[in-house]
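Quick one: structure for this chain?
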Amino acid sequence: MRWLWVVIVVLSNTAGDVFSAKGMSDRGEITDFRPRGIARVLKYIVTNRAVLTGIGTNAVSYFAFLALVSVAPLSFAVPATALSYILKTLLAEFYLGEFVNRRRWIGVALVASGIVLISF
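Got it. Here's what it folds into:
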């Protein structure tokens, strides 16, 4: 059962962060921090489908993580759910079109190695 929770956490957390990043990058940089500017950003957040999807899937991730730590030790849960870092990096490059340099790919490989070492 714990691996099912890991999969749910990883997929929902990855989707949440990617959708949120996509929605907010489409909006552009936030530069106006006066009350009216903040109100515009909040309006954008509550009306943008990608951002709302990101918020919803991150909520699923949070509650699934709570379920995971109810059936597995935290020392297993945190490293196992780090799989989401690998997926997020892949999606950042291939879906969001971000450039991921060699150093970051080496970091992804190290994270993957750590997950294998700790999870089994």
